[in-house]
Design a protein that fits this description.
Rossmann fold, 7 helices, about 300 residues, three-stranded antiparallel β-sheet, four-stranded parallel β-sheet, alpha/beta, about 20% strand, globular
Length: about 300
């Protein structure tokens, strides 16, 4: 989506649609798999937009471009099992050899790019759903996120100052999804926070490792990719993360949209949130938002006629 030729780890030419990272096919299967494992909506249609490299990294510009293009192509739901941190203050780096400190700027431009892409999508009837992230952080606390980055990268000479947002999950208009484990409690890795989480969905967990069968607490779905030597691998895999929770919510939103195409993005989002199963604290809470997404209840609330 506008990024080809800028990164040595990209998959190749623009027309190369082959997956080289199984994360995307796992998420796609969660939405619409129709084989030995079924997705939320086996009859739903899918479109794939390559906005990340074969290593699973990418720039905000690529992702925002993909969001805009998908909206123009008529996609009713954008499922974003990706994200990062947007530092709104400043990033500094100190050269360990000279001791000189350099100002590297901030993420304001990227933040605004996401903001505009989300607004464009919602205003054109496209629901945007994003994973909350797997850092185990209270992402409503912007300075806590900054401290987290300093802990991660401080030993490399980086220093982060000011507020830090989790994007695109934090953007207004986005349905931010946390992950639950096998017992419907917050997954050990899931981000959370008051005003941050909108909904929750099963994402699996790995807390029972290395007990026998620990992987059964994770999510099984499609896993297909082309290996570095060109060999295709097609199968299934167990994975855990808010990346697995996000497409479950996206699938429910897509079911509502496909049943009633006349509904706008905000109407669909309201239906999915209003019909969520309240878990945890009574009412909207920092861990599950409105609650666990529920396909049956969402479709039951859709206006008839």
């Amino acid at each position: 989506a506008g990024g080809w030729g800028d990164d040595p780890s990209e998959a190749g030419a623009r027309a190369d649609y082959l997956a080289r990272h199984g994360h995307g096919t796992h998420c796609a299967g969660t939405i619409a798999a129709n084989g030995r494992v079924l997705g939320v909506g086996p009859d739903l249609g899918l479109r794939a937009y390559r906005v990340l490299t074969r290593e699973g990294s990418g720039s905000t510009a690529w992702i925002a471009a993909g969001m805009v293009q998908a909206t123009k192509d008529g996609c009713r739901v954008l499922s974003l099992s990706l994200g990062g941190f947007a530092v709104m203050g400043q990033v500094f780096w100190t050269d360990p050899e000279t001791g000189a400190t350099y100002r590297l700027g901030n993420s304001v431009a990227g933040f605004l790019a996401y903001q505009r892409a989300v607004r464009f999508a919602v205003e054109n009837g496209t629901v945007v759903v994003a994973a909350a992230g797997n850092d185990g952080l209270n992402c409503a606390n912007k300075h806590l996120c900054t401290e987290y980055l300093n802990e991660l990268y401080g030993h490399l000479g980086y220093r982060f100052v000011g507020a830090t947002f989790t994007v695109p999950a934090w953007m207004p208009g986005v349905i931010c999804v946390s992950a639950t484990g096998p017992d419907d409690s917050l997954a050990s890795y899931s981000n959370y926070g008051p005003g941050y989480i909108d909904l929750a969905a099963p994402g699996g967990d790995f807390q029972r490792w290395p007990e026998p069968g620990w992987w059964y607490d994770m999510c099984l779905n499609t896993y297909a990719l082309v290996l570095p030597d060109g060999t295709p691998f097609v199968g299934y895999a167990w994975m855990a993360g808010t990346s697995m929770a996000c497409p479950k919510t996206s699938g429910v939103a897509a079911l509502v949209a496909s049943t009633h195409p006349e509904l706008g993005a905000q109407q669909i989002a309201e239906i999915v949130m209003q019909t969520a199963e309240d878990i945890g604290r009574v009412g909207v809470d920092p861990y599950f938002g409105h609650g666990m997404v529920n396909a049956y209840r969402s479709l039951s609330l859709v206006p008839q006629g």
